[in-house]
Amino acid sequence: MLHVLQCKRGMCMSLNIAICGCGIGGLSSALFLARQGHAVTLYERFDTPRPIGSGFMLQPIGMAVLEQLGLADTMRQRGARIERLFGKSQPSGAVVLDVRYDALDAKYSGLAVQRAALFDALYQAVTAAAIPVKSAHTVTHHAGETLHFANADAAGPFDLIIDALGVQSPLSAQHPGRALAYGALWATLDWPDAPFDPNALEQRYVRASKMAGVLPIGSERPGGPAKTAFFWSLHRNALHQWQDNTLGAWKAQARALWPETEPLLDQINTHDDLTFATYRHRTLSQPYEGRLIHIGDSYHATSPQLGQGANMALLDAYALAEAVSTGRAPCAIGPAFHDLRHRHVMLFQLLSRLFTPVYQSDSRILPILRDRIVGPLSKVPPAPAMLGRIVTGLLGGPLDGMGLEG
Description:
By secondary structure, the protein is an alpha+beta fold. The protein has a domain at about 15-180 and about 280-390: FAD/NAD(P)-binding domain, CATH 3.50.50.60. The chain is about 35% helix and about 25% strand. The protein has helices at about 25-35, 60-70, 70-80, 115-130, 240-245, 245-255, 260-265, 310-325, 330-360, 365-375, 385-390, and strands spanning about 15-20, 40-45, 55-60, 80, 85-90, 95-100, 110-115, 135, 140-145, 145-150, 155, 160-165, 180-190, 200-205, 210-220, 225-235, 275, 280-285, 290, 290-295, 300. A seven-stranded mixed β-sheet has the order 6-5-14-15-16-13-17. A six-stranded mixed β-sheet has the order 8-2-1-12-20-19, covered by helices on one side. A three-stranded antiparallel β-sheet has the order 3-7-4. A hairpin with a 4-residue loop joins strand 10 (about 145-150) and strand 11.
């Protein structure tokens, strides 16, 4: 289904809009706003826009937005349907994570995709819509309605400036905050001939200080080879030691934790086959300043434990277009956007802060509570349905008031 948010107060004045960053939030916003008839220009620091990252899960809230963009079926052709999130604590083998989408409703599932696949679908749509993309434009700051770049050029004036540059955006006055203690090594690998569930995210833990995960992520393009995302939790202070040690020493740890990953480990030949990602928790109390509006990680950065990052960015893009469609004056669009997203963002930021140390931290107490109390209780109603609402992103009713159906 292709849906264009129409003006809700008669004919809307066409706005001149700059969007900084060609990530998921920036590209999605560009499509929605251009389809409303606004003059949109994307600014990107890379010479050629490209995705950064391996795989992730599109949840029902994200798919609801992609339905409006007419891209949901495209992603279903490229992704892997996920029906379950499953994890065991080692060496006991105790099941400490078992979330099934059908515990909430049989119609729900996740869709694991390669970041490159979603980027390609969005970027191709932007290209087809003839939305200008100014590459090799590194934004340094803004002055009122004008953008400034590292090469000393400037652009503007703009009616709206949308900041989709991420947690370390130079357009944000708030410090990005310190990186969380634990990050993750990621690799995109061929789907292995091994006993992994093709419809599940599987994880293994040693306390909360070691975690390995396997996520089927479909293919980059229809008919392409099936891939998987493999990730390994690592304390950021241990990164240099990991780089200095032999790859064989790390593989031995991974095999000891999860022997079935052998076919995946065999595909990793150098340290450079893995990419280290760091994460931050930071939320802007006010994601706007006059005509400047922050979306995605520029607005709300968090760890990936709840798997909501890309989905939140898609919701931001839709909410932004919804706020613009009301025909408000440019300076009133930011507050309207904030009203649509504030409660849901704050709820999931809180949940992320609560869940992250349970699965990624140096704590010895929290994993014991997780394994002996939280894990067993999570199987007792109404916990399965509640966990389903958290995983789908539907907790807090984020689609309410925006004309979206999950």
